[in-house]
Design goal:
By secondary structure, the protein is of the alpha+beta class. About 20% of the residues lie in helices and about 30% in strands.
Length: about 500
């Protein structure tokens, strides 16, 4: 047999060079070094990330939870009363409001600092006596559950109180500074634990939520409004900077001023016709609080007068033949025109009707509408009853709405930020909010572009006097004249000072 020499098989990623021995590729060591370095970097980043996560967990979760538990175990700060020589907390709504015979316990006092001159630390907590009434004040982070638990109310009892209150008031809506009066009694089964006999929460709207324990162990919850009988009130203010300022000086509620602005918007150009020295006067019914401090609203305006450059514009509120309250002038004619002159609560015209230099294009162009400057989101009202004929985007006008009121009149509204719940073909009522002010399209700032089309021609919305609506007649007119004279007599009496007069002259 022939001797056949067998060559060893060398496995190498690098092909051997002819006539040379196989060479171990040094690049393999570099790859191993890179791999080790990469794992080291990954491990380092993982360690740093884990460290940050644990620190965040400690600061954001563990520590606040611990502080909350510690705070819950601390006695709740009781609202101490200044000038009360007995040093005990007073009931929220006056003496005996919740429990006339309730005996107030001695308030708990925190330990005094060691070494303070003239002060010794108490050695034992004074025994609690029941029933006891506390005047609590909601602090930052406080909940009703926390306040009850901190005053020894048993957990199940506290949850039962909260669940009962939810029928009239959500305890989660408590705000910092709100006052809570609670009368506690000894729990029947748990010794020193407390049970709630009565509880009252004073709300910002001057109403009170009251809770009382029933004989069967349940609770009765009621909401009482702190309102007394309405009183006739005369408000008077002079214009120094604006009509709203005059109303505020005359103690006329903001809601009443908005109502008057809408009523006068048919005839008064608030941009051009209001001047310093003008005045506003109203006769209205206000609802005072039972406590005698402040008012909780108004029942309605019976009379209003705007005096502009010495000319008085009087309007009277009266029910028409359909039983609806409406505004009439001194002769019994409705002040409600076919269209509003200002369909937005604004008194600032940024651009009038006529030729102007376009603020963006830079050339002179006919401006066939009126621009009312107002903040973005200001409600836009329908100028009259009508049907929506267009809703959408229209070139430089941006979001655009058109309303057809009858065969003669149409109105248009441009640069809208957003629409209300209207659609093409839907009917709208005068004063109904149809959209909101914005600056869409070609606009340099938020405003409403308002147009009036009369028989197909664009007319000036603030200069054009539209047709009057029907007035009163017959028995309705006679009743109106009687009501008018009564209002004027009462106004004169208040103005002479024989009754409460609130004025800012």
């Amino acid at each position: 047999m022939r001797n056949v020499s067998v060559k060893p098989i060398m496995i190498s990623p690098v092909p051997a060079i002819a006539g040379s021995l196989p060479v171990i590729r040094p690049v393999a060591r570099k790859r191993l070094s890179r791999l080790r370095l990469n794992w080291f970097v990954v491990g380092a980043f993982f360690g740093i990330g884990l460290s940050f996560f644990m620190s965040f967990l400690l600061v954001a979760v563990v520590t606040p939870a611990y502080d909350s538990v510690v705070a819950r175990l601390q006695p709740v700060k009781i609202n101490e009363t200044a000038g009360n020589s007995s040093g005990v907390p007073l009931p929220l709504r006056g003496e005996g409001a919740l429990n006339p015979s309730a005996q107030l316990s001695t308030p708990l006092t925190p330990p005094s600092p060691a070494g303070r001159e003239g002060v010794t630390a108490p050695t034992a907590t004074a025994a609690l006596t029941y029933p006891r009434t506390l005047a609590l004040k909601v602090g930052k982070g406080d909940t009703l559950l926390d306040l009850l638990l901190a005053n020894r109310v048993q957990t199940g009892e506290a949850h039962a109180v909260i669940n009962a209150l939810r029928s009239k008031f959500n305890p989660r809506n408590l705000r910092i500074g709100q006052k809570i009066s609670v009368t506690l009694e000894r729990h029947e089964k748990l010794g020193d634990a407390a049970a709630v006999r009565e509880l009252a929460i004073r709300l910002p709207n001057l109403s009170t939520i009251e809770l009382q324990r029933l004989q069967d162990g349940g609770f009765n919850v009621a909401a009482t409004e702190d309102v007394a009988t309405s009183r006739t009130f005369r408000g008077f203010g002079k214009v120094r900077t604006s009509l709203l300022q005059a109303g505020a000086d005359g103690h006329i509620p903001a809601a009443a001023m908005q109502e008057l602005l809408k009523a006068y918007s048919y005839d008064i150009d608030f941009q051009r016709e209001i001047h310093p020295g003008d005045s506003i006067e109203v006769l209205m019914e206000r609802k005072p609080a039972k406590s005698g401090s402040g008012f909780v609203g108004y029942a309605g305006i019976r009379y209003a007068a705007l005096t502009l450059r010495g000319k008085k514009h009087e309007i009277f509120r009266f029910k028409d033949s359909f039983g609806d309250a409406a505004w009439f002038d001194g002769k019994g004619r409705s002040i409600k025109k076919s269209l509003l002159r200002t369909p937005v609560d604004a008194v600032h015209i940024t651009s009038g009707f006529g030729l102007r230099t376009h603020p963006i294009m830079g050339y002179t162009k006919m401006h066939r509408g009126v621009d009312f400057g107002a903040p973005t989101g200001t409600p836009i009202m329908a100028a009259g009853d009508g049907v929506v004929t267009f809703k959408g985007w229209k070139s430089g006008y941006g979001n655009f709405v058109t309303l057809k009121h009858n065969e003669k009149y149409e109105t248009a509204y441009g640069h809208i930020s957003r629409f209300s719940a209207i659609k093409v073909g839907s009917r709208v009522k005068q004063g109904q909010v149809i959209a909101y002010v914005g600056m869409t399209g070609m606009a340099t700032g938020p405003h409403l572009h308002y147009e009036v089309h009369e028989a197909g021609n664009q007319v000036n919305p603030v200069a054009k006097q539209f047709n009057m609506a029907a007035g009163l007649s017959g028995k309705s007119l006679a009743a109106f004249k009687t009501a008018k004279q009564s209002a004027l007599n009462e106004l004169a009496t208040l103005a002479r000072g024989t009754a409460t007069v609130a004025s800012a002259r």
